[in-house]
Amino acid sequence: MTMTKTKHLILLLAIAAWSISGALPAPVQAQNDIDAGAAALLPPNADVYAWLNMADLEKNVRQVIDTGRQAGVTETYTELVLDGLLNAPFAGTGIDYRRDVAPWLGDEVALAVRGYTETLATPGLTSPEVAVIAASTDPSAALAFIQTILRDSKQSGQPLTEGSYDGVPVYYQNDIGLTLAGDHLVLGTRDLVHHIIGAYNGGPSLAGTVGFQKIAANLPPDSAVGVYLNAQDVAWSADYLHRLIRDAIIRSSGSPATPDPDGPMAPATAQFGEMVTGLAFSARVEAGAMMLDATVAVDAEAVRRTLGADGFLFRTEAMSGRIFQALPSDTFVMLAGRDLPDIFHTAQGAFAALEPVAETLNHYLVYKQHYQGPAPTGILQVVERWPVWFARLTGLDFEKDVMAWMSAEYAAALVPMAPGALAGHTSRFPFDLLAVAEIGDPAAAQRTAEAIPAALVDLGLGDEGNLSSSTVNGVEVYSLRLAQHHRASVSWAMTDGFAAAGTGTFNVVRFVDMMRSGYLPSMLDNARLQKALDRLGGPGHTLLFVDVSQGMYYLNYSLPETMRPYTWDIGVQRILYALESLTLSGRAVESDVYQLTAMAVFKE
User: What is the pLDDT of residues 13-29, one digit of tens each?
Assistant: First the structure.
């Protein structure tokens, strides 16, 4: 088979992309253990390390496609898509994945990127250093395949140049190097290949860095695909890009001023680089479900120093699920968690850390000639000072009096409105907002309950007809009408160790009835929530749950046929009908490692 130079390079990249090993003369014996996979071959300052688990690739891809059965995907279509994906890298080469590659393919194919920050800072460089690293389980079969490629390269008139680096044979074509490091084939730009050989021969590697070790120890073991980011390099890149943007803005404005290279953004990106030591995203596939995981490792001391508090990220205690009993079983969307005071403190520290970013946005908006909106610094000041205004309004210290009794579990939810509530109105949003908190300090909660009505009276909102109360099952339920339109109202009540507030009275009364009588079903009785929690291994520290099956009726009601775009009926609606639930769960797996898991469960 003869090939042009272009086809030959494409073929080499395709081979490495799907993993080839054992193809070249045996290299010098390495001094380090590379059982950690491709990460043990990468230099410590690799910016990006992405991996694909080849062991179960075909099974995982088929499972992903098969989850679309409820959306009208046929078995024939599944096989066509699968074959197309597997053979896409080899288009035009005559190679068949199952026949020529799968028999000797190893468990991992990895992509590494290095020097992106250096690329930005070094004149003349136009692209980062890139390498593909592929593992093999049958070096002899891979060797025969590679030797065929080498023969073809000679016949095409573009032979690879044989050389070596640090005692390891390397084949070159222009700036591309191809080598074998143990049972891993490496194809990439020359300098990065040389750095990989150095790591293979006992030099420092990405696998030995603290950030990567923290991430690797806490990644789900069955991840099908993932990417690891060197957080400090990402922060440096963000700061450098910010400087470039500011330079461009100032030049376009005609101003001769040159921004300080260590401008307002530099402290924020530096703080990010200090706080975050590693960041990874990965995906898992299970029968009837798909999961995406985001895992972040942090320097706990740096976070405490920057945010001024421990922060809720470092609480490893999970929810007990008690809060679920305070929400009705037909809840459509639920955000639940624990330790609101920790979140409040973390938010305060985050707002302070955002001040340099707000300053940068101010500078940017100054050069937008027609911008007349509020300044970002002004918005940030409003957000930061609202506890002071709350104290002046109610006489309560928001942190000591309100947050004090919200230290247990909490939830905010979208729940169906009262039947017929939308009759005669133009709005078609069929949900009320209901917020519920477990009462950790009854005395502080009582002070809040007494202070709010009094504050409303002082504001002139407590006139008869605006502020009212009624007794439901022995519990006082307050309601404040915000406008003449009867839907614009807020109601609240406290009972049985929980407090609730919501738009409209119907669901607050339902909360009281549910807690007092015990016969109304709650989210503890929601089978889809329990199924999701079983797959996740518990609710974690924070949980966002969307009951798609329950909510489809309301979604269709809120979007009548005359207002539905064509894509809703042929695409979005089909996908949603195939789903049972969507869940986002967050938990601290260690005191300095936090993980978010997004999960989609499909109907059986």
Answer: 444 433 333 333 333 33
